[in-house]
Structure formats: C-alpha cells, structure tokens
Amino acid sequence: MSAVEIVSFGYLHGEPPPAHLTIDLRHHFKDPHVSPELRYMTARDEPVRATVLGTPGIADLLEATATAVAAFLTGPSAGTVTVADGCAGGRHRAPIFAEHLAHRLRGDGLSVTLHHRDLDKPVVQR
Question: Which positions fall inside the RapZ C-terminal domain (predicted)?
Fold first, then answer.
C-alpha cells in the first residue's frame, strides 16, 4: 500500500518541514485570524472549519493536491510521499486543509499519517 505523510504547520513558528509538496495557504485563502471571534479558536472548532472550507478555491486545491500526490506515488522511486501545508500560525487553514486532504487520500485507499506541528501553539500576535 502506498503511504503519504501530511504535516500542517505555521510559517510564523519556523521553517516548513521537508516535503515533496509544500502548499502555502497564506495569501490566497480566507484567514480566520483576522476575525476577532475566530482568532483564538482552532481547526477543531466548527466556525473556523466552515470559514476555511467555504473559501473559494479550497476544494479545487484539495483535488489538485490529491492529483499531485498520485503522480508522485506512480513515479519510479518507492517510499512515502510527504505533503506539508502551511498557513501563518498553523492553527486554522493548514490543519483543516491537511485533515481534508488526508480524508480524500484515504478514500483512494492510501495509508495516510497526519501531524499538526503547530496547532496547539499560542496564537501569534501580528
């Protein structure tokens, strides 16, 4: 069975982890941090999930990323494919995207591990 590792992270907490694919969600997708009522929530909270998933383009990016992962998996080298997806703080957009990507890839029969590097870190004041 092919294996995929997904790591969500926040650029403001350090360098992106090593990955075959790095997805930067900072500039093109709605940031819940800018809404005071969502700022201190995380990807575990439904209002944040609804905001991120309701952003135009997210569903298309999930599908495009799943297609890119499939391309890596069909390449001549064996091994785990790593996807890192990041937002500013790693508490909102990146973990939600990572969870939905993991669900999508598991639906294709892939073995997926998921790690949220910065989800439980404090809110970055910016």
Answer: 3-119
